[in-house]
Design goal:
Layout (H helix, E strand, L loop, with lengths): L1 H9 L1 H28 L8 H22 L5 H7 L1 H7 L4 H6 L6 H19 L6 H31 L5 H13 L9 H10 L7 H7 L16 H26 L1
């Protein structure tokens, strides 16, 4: 990773473009939310600051994921270029080699926007941040990163098994960005269930933010869900690793 970072830093234009790409996408998501709030001062009983907390938790988690594990999205490229085969012949774990293949500079842009969003959120929220709340927030951000890692591990595994499935990386990123920044109550019941029990992106921001802002009694299904982000993230990650191992074994036999 250090060699990749030095290479990218050597070309300042490429470095700046990578950072700008991360910033531009996240700002686009926030601008969309701003347009909505210019028409509606609140959504499902959530104010602007409270909804920014949802998106800030999710984006901080996304930034951490991109910083440490974002190279998962390069697996289709590595497979096409034949570099993935080289990883399999080395003694180091394949995933570790993927994670350290190059420095994900665009994660800097993601984290900058997330930090800016969170600072605006703090200025709008009338909250007292106790030690318990700060610990819960930190755990929520880490859980969001782990959840995203688990979901992307499933997709990376499918890329090894099924050609053309790399588009699922973009689908997941767009789905999380478009639907993961808002209270579940604004969506139909079917989507509330899908984002809780199917593709559980609500645990990356909404459910922990509901506890922090005092909306725990308004969440769908059961208030217990506001405490379950770490557990859900751990289960998705375990499932992702298991799926990855199975598909990697299949690839070793048939790739």
């Amino acid at each position: 990773m250090r060699a990749g970072l030095r290479s990218q830093l050597a070309n300042r234009a490429d470095f700046a473009m990578a950072v700008a790409n991360g910033i531009t996408y996240q700002i686009t998501v926030l601008l969309f939310a701003a347009v909505i709030f210019s028409r509606f001062p609140s959504l499902a009983g959530w104010g602007l600051g409270e909804i920014l907390l949802i998106s800030s938790i999710r984006m901080m988690g996304h930034g951490l994921y991109m910083l440490f594990f974002g190279n998962l999205g390069l697996i289709p490229h590595l497979v096409r270029e034949g570099r993935f085969e080289a990883f399999r012949t080395r003694p180091a774990p394949v995933l570790l080699q993927v994670f350290t293949y190059e420095a994900p500079i665009n994660a800097v842009g993601d984290l900058v926007v997330a930090a800016a969003s969170f600072s605006v959120c703090l200025s709008l929220l009338d909250m007292t941040w106790s030690a318990t709340a700060l610990l819960f927030l930190a755990l929520a951000v880490v859980s969001a990163a782990v959840l995203e890692l688990g979901l992307n591990l499933h997709i990376a595994a499918l890329v090894l098994r099924f050609r053309g499935s790399e588009s699922l990386f973009f689908w997941l990123d767009n789905t999380a960005g478009n639907f993961g920044n808002y209270p579940l109550a604004v969506f139909p019941t079917a989507l509330q269930g899908a984002f809780t029990f199917g593709l559980p992106i609500a645990f990356a921001g909404y459910y922990p933010a509901a506890w922090l802002t005092g909306h725990a009694d308004t969440v769908p299904f059961t208030p217990v869900l506001v405490y379950l982000s770490p557990l859900v993230a751990a289960l998705v990650l375990a499932s992702g690793f298991a799926t990855w191992r199975r598909c990697l074994e299949w690839y070793a036999r048939n790739g």
